[in-house]
């Protein structure tokens, strides 16, 4: 999951993100370009990608924890925004609508 962070404290924020979600086997990695330099957003910020080995649990609580960290601009969870989810798999496509 991508997290946009300010460059000034991106390493500190990256370490904090990994520590917060260590219970879910989280690995936090700075997104880089092929030459190794940090990828920059349109606003000049860095992206830290979070990789989870297991479920993080309550997504609203996870979202709040991420937003409370110094240096975090935004994350890739779109909580409460979607009215439907389309899931494709080996057995076909399923559409799940919000009740």
UniProtKB/TrEMBL annotation:
Catalyzed reactions: aldehydo-D-ribose 5-phosphate = D-ribulose 5-phosphate
Superkingdom classification of source: Eukaryota
Pathways involved: Carbohydrate degradation
Xref: InterPro entries: Ribose-5P_isomerase, Ribose5P_isomerase_type_A
Alphabetical GO biological process terms: pentose-phosphate shunt, non-oxidative branch
Gene Ontology MF annotations: ribose-5-phosphate isomerase activity
Signal sequence extent: none
Protein name per Swiss-Prot or TrEMBL: Ribose-5-phosphate isomerase
Organism of origin: Linum tenue
């Amino acid at each position: 999951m991508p997290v946009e962070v300010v460059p000034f404290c991106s390493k500190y924020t990256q370490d904090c993100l990994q520590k917060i979600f260590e219970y879910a086997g989280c690995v936090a990695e700075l997104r880089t370009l092929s030459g190794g330099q940090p990828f920059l957003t349109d606003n000049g910020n860095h992206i830290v990608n979070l990789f989870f080995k297991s479920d993080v649990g309550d997504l609203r609580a996870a979202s709040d924890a991420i937003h409370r960290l110094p240096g975090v601009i935004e994350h890739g969870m779109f909580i409460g925004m979607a009215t439907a989810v389309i899931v494709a798999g080996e057995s076909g496509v399923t559409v799940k609508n919000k009740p």
